[in-house]
Design the sequence.
């Protein structure tokens, strides 16, 4: 019974050791370990301004399909200012001004 346990333990250790070597580059020098790649932060996509709705004193905005009020967040951006035709978003100390309509409209 002890021989079976010894063989099972040896087999298990060899499988584990083989799996660890298989994960490394077989052409790499002995003892070389790959450096861990730096993980880059996913950049939050700037929301798209779709509509501005004002009813008296309070305005709501539709950004990328979500209704957002002043001070609320969407995709990590905070709505900081609303006018009749544009909004201001802020994130990490930076500001973005989004216009409802394009300012340079060409007519043929």
Sequence:
């Amino acid at each position: 019974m002890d021989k079976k346990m010894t063989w099972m333990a040896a087999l298990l250790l060899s499988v584990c050791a083989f799996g660890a070597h298989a994960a490394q580059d077989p052409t790499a020098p002995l003892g070389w370990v790959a450096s861990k790649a730096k993980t880059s932060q996913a950049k939050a996509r700037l929301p798209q301004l779709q509509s501005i709705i004002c009813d008296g004193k309070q305005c709501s905005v539709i950004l990328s399909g979500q209704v957002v009020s002043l001070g609320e967040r969407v995709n990590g951006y905070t709505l900081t200012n609303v006018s009749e035709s544009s909004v201001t978003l802020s994130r990490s100390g930076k500001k973005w001004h989004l216009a409802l309509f394009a300012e340079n409209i060409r007519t043929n």
